[in-house]
């Protein structure tokens, strides 16, 4: 069989640090692949005026599977100011390359597991009536619609005539009719039935495969009636095929409260793009935060796997690096599962769990220290030491 090729896109900042660590772990675990590096991120914007060059798109189209580290994004003016002078005033407009990748390859299903590793000092705890505390085990997997909704980018300030007229045809627009047009901003929230159905189908199929007893559709259908209503309707339709799995529906606001009270009650959670982004960060905060938050972006035949953290520029130049490589490693483990390498995935996950449970090697975030070079003298492991510890636990 031809050797598998994986496209690796370290990107910016700590992406450059954590991605090679994940590759090191996978190789030590016996996963064999050709790793092809591809350009993405801020440096490409500055030098080429495009943070997602066509050659990178071509490589992903060819090989179908990629690991992504992180990129740096900056606001409009900062982006324009950092562009190579030779490229200025040529109409280059910065657009987040990871959002661009999701749209270009229709990576419409984002999967974000938030799972407690026993022994992690960052785990959620709850005070009990007798003054003690308990540490419920969280095992929530967020299915976020990844391409539509409020992040689709259909928006205006000072909307043009035809948009204004379309808005004005809605009776409820009467409340805005008197607003000066340049003082009115509109970001549309577009859902399609096909994408709502697909995220719900993927969520239920995952729940069935992994033995979850419930799928929660988390939206706000009592207020956002059309879009949230469509997601819930599709959830109910898909549920018909899964008599053994309960369908719960919650509102995003109440869900954020409940997940800090009884997070252990939730299993698979489905939501549109923005609410999925919010809920997944909410659950991630209960199981270790950014250093532990892994994710997958899945399309019909392409998968891109990435930690949910960004490029953490303030730690990017530290040598030795202190950031936690676990989120990136767990994202690479999700890639192994997707590629059908469940046995290797299980061993890497087990090794991470063992290191966390043992507690001898902890990065600064796990020790609740302030980040910086001093953290090492205060007992924090370096990025490399954490990776080495995980590799040492591989069986
Ligand atoms: P960030 O995730 O880069 O960092 C926030 C803070 O979280 C860091 O300062 C650090 O304290 C901590 N942190 C992040 N990753 C960690 C790790 N692996 N181990 C230990 N601690 C970690 O978010 P921030 O500061 O808001 O954004 C920095 C840059 O990253 C911005 O340019 C932003 O646009 C970009 N970004 C990119 C993302 C992506 O590539 N998918 C996602 C989020 C932000
Ligand atoms: Mg987010």
Overview of this structure, please?
- With 395 residues, the chain is α/β, with parallel strands linked by helices.
- The chain has three domains: 1-109 and 302-395, Isopropylmalate Dehydrogenase (3-Layer(aba) Sandwich), CATH 3.40.718; 124-152 and 190-286, 3-Layer(aba) Sandwich (Isopropylmalate Dehydrogenase); 154-187, no CATH class.
- Helix content is 38%, strand content 17%.
- The chain contains 15 helices and 14 strands.
- It has helices spanning 15-28, 42-48, 54-63, 76-82, 97-104, 161-168, 193-209, 227-239, 252-258, 273-284, 313-316, 326-338, 342-358, 374-377, 383-393; strands at 5-11, 34-37, 65-70, 109-115, 126-127, 133-134, 139-145, 155-157, 185-187, 214-219, 246-251, 268-271, 294-298, 303-307.
- Strands 2-1-3-14-13-4-7-12-10-11 form a ten-stranded mixed β-sheet, with helices on both faces.
- Helix 1 links the parallel strand 1 (5-11) and strand 2 (34-37).
- Helix 7 (193-209) crosses helix 8 (227-239).
- It binds 1,4-dihydronicotinamide adenine dinucleotide (NAI) and magnesium ion.
- 1,4-dihydronicotinamide adenine dinucleotide binds at residues 14, 70-73, 98, 290-291, 306, 309-314, 323-324, 327, 365, 371.
Major sheet summary line: 10 strands, mixed
In the CATH hierarchy, what is the architecture of the largest domain at level 2?
Answer: 3-Layer(aba) Sandwich
Overall average pLDDT: 96
**% residues in beta strands:** 15-25%
What bound compounds does this protein have?
Answer: 1,4-dihydronicotinamide adenine dinucleotide, magnesium ion
- Neighbour order of strands in the largest sheet: 2-1-3-14-13-4-7-12-10-11
Beta strand count: 14
CATH superfamily of the largest domain: Isopropylmalate Dehydrogenase
- The rounded Rg comes to 22 Å
From the spread of the alpha carbons, the general shape counts as globular
Low-confidence stretches: none
